[in-house]
Design brief:
By secondary structure, the protein is α/β, with parallel strands linked by helices. The protein folds into two domains: 380 residues, no CATH class; 123 residues. The chain contains 25 helices and nine strands. The strands form two sheets. A seven-stranded mixed beta sheet has the order 5-6-4-3-7-9-8. Helix 22 links the parallel strand 3 and strand 4. Helix 16 runs antiparallel to helix 17 and helix 24 packs parallel to helix 25.
């Protein structure tokens, strides 16, 4: 075939300016709904990764450098600087630090609504943006002070530019400008996440796929004539990519995982299971959506499918796995929902305008009712009504909340010669200091990757064995040990032998059970 566009559903016949404005209106509606869903859960317990940005942003404000204690947190400094701006304007609170993540989430919803309304019609723009807002990972990361939503926003723009530049009607000038913009955005994405390399490769594959489909009358015969040669060339290209990745150290990094993430390192179907658990309806029905999208907008669907498959395959091979690591590709997942919706809407159209509107209203009602009956839909409705607490809505909100224990711990911190904790960021945030982080996972992240190595983010030392803990307890002066309950007796946290040593040598301190903390005061054997 000469082009996939020849069998695609025709774009809605509206002027470019009108479609942009209509998409913007739809985007504002969906973004407003996102803000409403976030309002009741944005004030949740602080997490370690969030506090890296929050504390270094405070350091930026105070010293001009992203300082935490005696170290510096230099990763994704752009995001940290954005957080610092919000802290200066809205107050030095963790909630203020989460506002950039929420705003970038809303911006991505706006982007989807505007682009798809112009490209495939308002039904496509509305559904894509709405599904994006419904996704549980979207809600969780929108109130999480980390760079994932900014990265997703940047990568989504890259994907749109790649697709637009691949269209046959685009001029050479547009393609050159788009290529330059993609390179700039890729550099920005790499500043935030190394996984941008995977995104670039996935979009390159998607672009090649749609361009080849556009020229299938030329490409098809070549593939049929030289299948073995082309197959060998593809294998050679993959081997070359792996070799280059190995030389640059990317392959090794791909196959490495910290201790806390080892549970998923050898689970190639991790993402299939994780998304089935996180969004059971939206994930289960996606194959049907993909088929409808293909018949509606085959070219755009092909681009999205190739990119999605490429990203999920690489991340499934990678040792370190988490839904937030593949979040940047989920907007393209939502684009396919938009394509399917546009196709169904096109089927409902008739010569009678009134009949078309009635059919579309019926479709909207049916979709709304269906989604309202799903786990994801009910969750969204409860969030909109403010009927879910952070503990009910967020998987990570069950972490230890130190606040109830702070009044009991503060005078002990002031009197202690050494403070040992299993969570350095929370210890600095709640107690103002720490000296040693007792956490086996953190040891591997220090400058030496060995016991008593220096964590460059804070300038302090990390330990992860009973022997190292014994050395600390033998140092002169009183030692205060504050450990989160969830880290106890874990090889990736505080090993059982270290816990036993602390219990044997130290006196436990009574703390409120809701704090989910255990603390001990220890007298040195040298005193």
């Amino acid at each position: 075939m000469s082009s996939l566009e020849s069998v695609a559903v025709q774009d809605v016949q509206v002027s470019k300016s009108r479609s942009v404005w209509l998409g913007a209106v739809l985007g504002v509606v969906v973004s407003g709904a996102l803000a409403l869903m976030a309002r009741g859960i944005i004030d949740h317990v602080p997490l370690y990764d969030e506090l890296l940005h929050f504390l270094s942003a405070r350091g930026l404000i105070a010293t001009g450098h992203p300082a935490i204690a005696e170290g510096f947190y230099v990763r994704a400094q752009l995001f940290t600087r954005i957080v610092a701006l919000f802290l200066e304007h809205d107050g030095a609170t963790v909630v203020a630090a989460r506002l950039p993540a929420l705003l970038f989430t809303m911006a991505t919803a706006m982007l989807l609504a505007i682009w798809l309304t112009r490209r495939i019609g308002w039904w496509g723009g509305l559904v894509a943006a709405a599904i994006f807002a419904l996704l549980p990972p979207t809600i969780e990361l929108a109130v999480f002070a980390r760079f994932y939503t900014l990265h997703a926003f940047v990568v989504t723009i890259m994907a749109m530019l790649c697709y637009e530049a691949s269209l046959p009607e685009r001029t050479r000038r547009f393609r050159i400008v788009s290529a330059i913009a993609v390179l700039v955005l890729a550099a920005l994405g790499l500043h935030l996440q190394d996984t941008t390399v995977i995104a670039v490769a996935a979009f390159a594959a998607g672009t090649v796929a749609v361009v080849a489909a556009d020229r299938w009358d030329i490409v098809g015969p070549i593939l049929r004539r030289y299948p073995i040669r082309i197959g060998l060339a593809a294998v050679a290209a993959v081997a070359a990519a792996i070799a280059v990745g190995t030389v640059l150290g990317l392959t090794q990094r791909l196959m490495e995982a910290p201790l806390w993430a080892m549970h998923a390192a050898h689970r190639p179907f991790f993402y299939l299971v994780a998304f089935a658990d996180t969004m059971p309806f939206l994930w289960a029905i996606f194959p049907v959506v993909a088929v409808i999208a293909w018949f509606s907008q085959p070219r755009l669907t092909l681009f999205c499918l190739v990119a999605l498959v490429a990203v999920f395959v690489v991340h499934s091979i990678a040792a370190q796995k988490s839904i937030r690591y593949v979040y940047y590709i989920l907007p393209l997942y939502c684009v396919m929902w938009g394509c399917a919706a546009a196709g169904i809407a096109a089927r409902l159209q008739s010569a009678d305008v009134q009949s078309t509107r009635l059919r579309e209203a019926g479709m909207a009602f049916l979709v709304a009712v269906t989604l309202a009956l799903t786990v994801e839909g009910q969750r969204a409705v409860k969030l909109l009504l403010g009927r879910l607490t952070p503990h009910e809505a967020l998987g990570y909100a069950v972490e230890a909340e130190w606040s109830p224990a702070v009044p009991s711990l503060q005078p002990l911190v002031a009197a202690a010669r050494h403070v040992v904790t299993s969570n350095a960021m929370k210890s600095i945030y709640y107690l103002g200091r720490y000296d040693y982080e007792l956490n086996a996972s953190i040891v591997t992240e220090t400058d030496t990757e060995e016991e008593f190595g220096r964590d460059e983010r804070t300038g302090m030392q990390a330990i992860g064995t009973a022997a190292s803990m014994d050395k600390v307890l033998r140092m002169p002066g009183t030692t205060l040990v504050v450990l989160e309950t969830e880290t106890l007796n874990l090889d990736s946290g505080v090993p059982t032998s270290a816990v036993a040593l602390i219990k044997e040598r130290c006196v436990e301190i009574a703390l409120p059970p809701q704090a989910q903390l255990s603390a001990w005061q220890c007298q040195s054997l040298a005193d």
